[in-house]
Amino acid sequence: MIDLNCDMGENIGDDASIMPFITSANIACGYHAGDKKTMRETVRLAKRYSVNVGAHPSWRDLEGFGRREQALSPMTAVEALILEQVAVLNEIAEAEGVRLIHVKPHGALYNQAAKAYPLAKAIAQTVKRFNAKLILVGLAGSKLIEAGVEAGLQVVNEGFADRRYNSDGTLVSRDKPGAIIATPAEAAAHTLELIQHGILFGGKRVQIDTLCLHSDHPYAIENAKLIRALLQR
Fold first, then answer.
1. Of 26, 28, 168, 228, which has fewest CB within 10 angstroms of its CB?
2. Does residue 53 contact residue 46 with C-beta atoms inside 8 Å?
3. CATH code for the domain in which residue 169 is found
């Protein structure tokens, strides 16, 4: 079955109600949302439901929730940024008897790495240096996936159940009307389309391995229930 993941530990969604329906949790590491207390609580919740735990690192941007693009820093600075966030969540997970499974960048960091290879390479190399067994999650067909493959990491091509796409395979900016898919029924139909046909990114058709839901969506719980049932069918 295709993995169903959700961005969590952000202090804005009902994680406890969503967790039973997903298979992977991307946990905020404090730079765009969350803190050590939230991380620990979310790891424990994931453990209760046997949900895979992953780090969700971001640009340092609490005010903008990690959704504001930043100028590409020296790659050493990017590497330090990623390493610090992954390390702190990993330490908490280990203390709770949970193994860190994956890393998925958040927000603007994720979207910039989808298009900018130097940034994608810095992220991939940092993940590999921390733990070469970690899975790197990226936008299906993107530069982040390409960099992960070249680094020798296991990669997962991600699709978004509750977001719309541009014609080039990138996500429609949240600033534009219709970027967020409004209803669970529409999200389910969109999910079926992604599963059956994949995503056209850079002129290539890419099949997805994991689907993302956002815990801050107005119908996040309903989306999780409906799409999990769809995947099981």
1. 168
2. yes
3. 3.20.20.370
CA 57, CA 104: separation in Å to the nearest integer? 7
Indicate the pTM of the whole model: 0.95
Alpha carbons 150 and 52: distance in angstroms, whole number:
24
Q: Which domain holds residue 43?
A: 3-232
Kindly give the confidence (pLDDT) of every residue in the chain, 233 residues in length, as a single tens digit, with 9 standing for 90 and above: 799 999 999 998 899 999 999 999 999 999 999 999 999 999 999 999 999 999 999 999 999 998 999 988 888 999 999 999 999 999 999 999 999 999 999 999 999 999 999 999 999 999 999 999 999 999 999 999 999 999 999 999 999 999 999 888 889 988 888 889 989 999 999 999 999 999 988 788 999 999 999 988 889 999 999 999 999 88
Query: What does the DSSP 8-state code read for residue 100?
Result: E
C-beta separation of 53 from 101 below 8 A: yes
Domains of the chain: total: 1
